Amino acid sequence: MKESASNVATRVARSWNESVPWLVSLAAYVFASAVLALRAYRSTGEFAFPLDDAYIHMAVARSLAEHGVWGVTPDAFSASTSSLLWPALLAAGFVLTGPTVLWPLALNLFAGAGVLLLTERWLRETALPSRARLPVLLLLSSVLGSAALLGMEHTPHALAALLLLRCASSMLSSRAAAPLGLGISAAFATGLRYESLLFVGILTLCLVAQRKPRAALAVTLGGLLPAAAFGAWSVAQGWELLPNPVTQKRAAFGWESSSLRFALNVSTSPALLAATLVLLGLAWHQWRASAPRRASALLALLVAASTAGHLCFAATDALARYETYLLVLAVVSLALLLQPVFGGTDGRWGYTHAAAGGGLAAVALLSAVRAYGVWSSLPTASRNIYDQQLQTARFVRALPSDVRVAVNDIGAVSLRGEHRIFDLWALASLPPSRYRTELARSGSIRNLARTQGARIAVAYAHTFLPNQHDDAPPWRDLGQLTIANNVTCADATVHFYAADDRSAVAARAALERLLPTLPARTQWREAQLSPKPTSPE
């Protein structure tokens, strides 16, 4: 009896010791996210996401939950988000509680914890000891901490991509792995972000090279299913095959444009280049070493090729959102290559292990520098969105309900109001091809806004061009709102325009309600040569 109790105590102690890396990294992740959220809240008195894009997803989720319409406003369908599953997940939460920022935050935090748990279990299966797992998991927690505060799909996408990599590892290693699981994980990854289609394509080639046609077919069908299903629905609604953000922002596939995109992305996120070079070198070395190591070589090649493709044809940005999933995959892949040293199958540091360790250290250093910059700018970015987009939403809510408003940033305005919106940046109001046709016919974006029924506009002067001469009636500039220390908005100054005297009266009334409550750090400037109109009889 005593021996049995002793064995139980030993197993409990061993299990606790094995769980320490995950628990420590989880605590670090939650603490970092909480500190960033608190700093954002204290800077404004209300939590605001650092990007208007988060509010676009929430607006679509709200329309879906309350009206069954996939669009930023409930009056019509619009293909306004590059993620297909994220608005659906948010809508499920909104059905229970109504629209709230808590759902994006909670889902991101759970997804980040899932990334850490999946990584911990995977590395533990390879016999990597706690002292090696802990720094890997802490590095991931630093990458995920800022991504969670964006309120978007990037952390769940990192979890889906890691799950797909885990399934791919089992399949490439010739262990028993169900093609169905591979297809499902591929569907989740591409449903959350279209960038995963590149990952899925390269994985398909790897599976074909290993003569695994069923697995290749499963991952291909699973990866294409979300995009194909949504594309068919979108076309049936009179829109295009791809969502507007993907159509508007996709890179041209010429050598000149891809090389320029590559240079810009590397300058923004050098950690991705470091990870790509190290993984490519290690994949080549592992492939030459022995046949049993070729599965790990294919895995490293898969991540390296996907990262290189992203650098050439996709995007990175100042808040490190687009590359989150790639950094997670690169860190885990490099950690797996250290297994022979710590797992006892080799026991000494050779070229491969030293390169993997050095590569992981380089990625860690570059990621830490990048994370510091992101963490420093997040509270300011949240304050920018609060001072510009959320104040614009308050202005629009104060307008009469029958007024259509043209805006550059549609997220917060759509989420917090019921007005019909015309999107000046072509993400929500018209399919891109029709938008270009109507714009050419109208002659200018402000004339297009007028022909689409907008009578009030809140826009950046460099896009609206109100002073450009043509035969159309001019828009009246009522004033401009300028925010301080802009790091995330397209312009620090947004202008308020009215198409006619009647609209100007309504806009003036809404401004009179808004201006006394503006944050003190913002600056309002009344437009010159813009006499206050009188209400028409």
Mean pLDDT: 86
- What's the gyration radius in Å? 26 Å
Distance between the termini: 96 Å
Structural class computed from helices and strand pairing: mainly alpha
Blueprint of the fold:
Elements: H1 2-44, H2 52-67, H3 85-97, H4 102-125, H5 130-148, H6 154-172, H7 179-192, H8 196-209, H9 213-236, H10 244-249, H11 255-268, H12 270-289, H13 294-313, H14 324-336, H15 339-342, H16 351-397, E1 404-407, H17 411-415, E2 421-423, H18 432-442, H19 445-451, E3 454-459, H20 461-464, E4 476-482, E5 493-498, H21 501-514, E6 523-526
Parallel strand pairs: 1-2, 1-3
Antiparallel strand pairs: 3-5, 4-5, 4-6
Helix pairs in contact: 1-4, 1-5, 1-16, 2-3, 4-5, 4-6, 5-14, 5-16, 6-7, 6-8, 6-13, 6-14, 7-9, 8-9, 8-13, 11-12, 11-13, 12-13, 12-14, 12-16, 13-14, 14-16, 16-21, 18-19
Structural account:
The chain is mainly alpha-helical and 537 residues long. 65% of the residues lie in helices and 6% in strands. It contains 21 helices and 6 strands. β1, α17 and β2 form a beta-alpha-beta unit. α11 (255-268) crosses α13 (294-313). It is globular, with a radius of gyration of 26 Å. The relative contact order is 0.10. Residues 251-256 and 530-537 have low confidence and may be disordered.
